Amino acid sequence: MKKNKKTIIFDLDDTLIDTSHLYWSVKYDILNFIHSKSNVSYKELDIMFEEIEHKNTIKFGYDPSRYKISANELCSKCDIKDIKDINYINKIADRIILDDPKLIEGAEELLSYLYSKYNLVLLTSGIQKLQFRKIKNNGLNRYFGEKNTKVVEKKDLKIFIDFLKELSLLPENCFVIGDSIKSDINPAMECGIKAIHYNYKHEYYEWEQDKAETQYSFNSVDKLLDIKEIL
Ligand SMILES: [Mg+2]
Questions:
Q1: pLDDT, tens digit, for every residue of 69-92?
Q2: How much distance in Å is there from the Cα of 123 to the middle of ligand 1?
Q3: Which residues contact 145 (CB under 8 A, 6 or more apart)?
Q4: Which residue of 6, 115, 144, 160 has the fewest CB atoms within a 10 Å radius of its CB?
Q5: What's the 201 CA to ligand 1 centre distance in angstroms?
Q6: CA Rg value for the chain
């Protein structure tokens, strides 16, 4: 970490990599399969699945293996009991863990632009092994070494304060860039870090679990490369 440079604390999922797209495509395949085996409409299945997911995210946190649990709960609600069907659904749900989400448009260009100008660090929530694999397989380890990456269970004010302390950073010398008002923007701004919101949008999917109100004002961009104009 260079002392004369400011530090940018990046979020990973839905900021640099398109995690929601992977979740959406797995959900789409699960619901379509259940729909083909039951007389419940896709829309109803979607509502039921989101309710189960909401409950299981509270219970199991951001551990992606909960998706399989949620899929199995939906199967039993729809009276799908054939072991072949359940195995097929489990195989689809495993893609959440086995597949890597792809880079979001502009991520690579933004990081290579910022790399020489700032200290770049990553603060991400999830399972350590999985987060490091996603970073490596997308070539992001060029910008974020293991020393500059911290994986936490979930992000809140205390996590940000501890993170600054750990890296001996002052909030006024940092920026946070992330998609979540609840997990990135609010806790960062509460401890005095300037934040830039990346307004992640998926064509079909909205991540209800992470929505929150905010009392802060901050810049929000629809495209990652627009961040260059703000910093
Ligand atoms: Mg995120």
A1: 999 999 999 999 999 999 999 999
A2: 10
A3: none
A4: 115
A5: 11
A6: 19
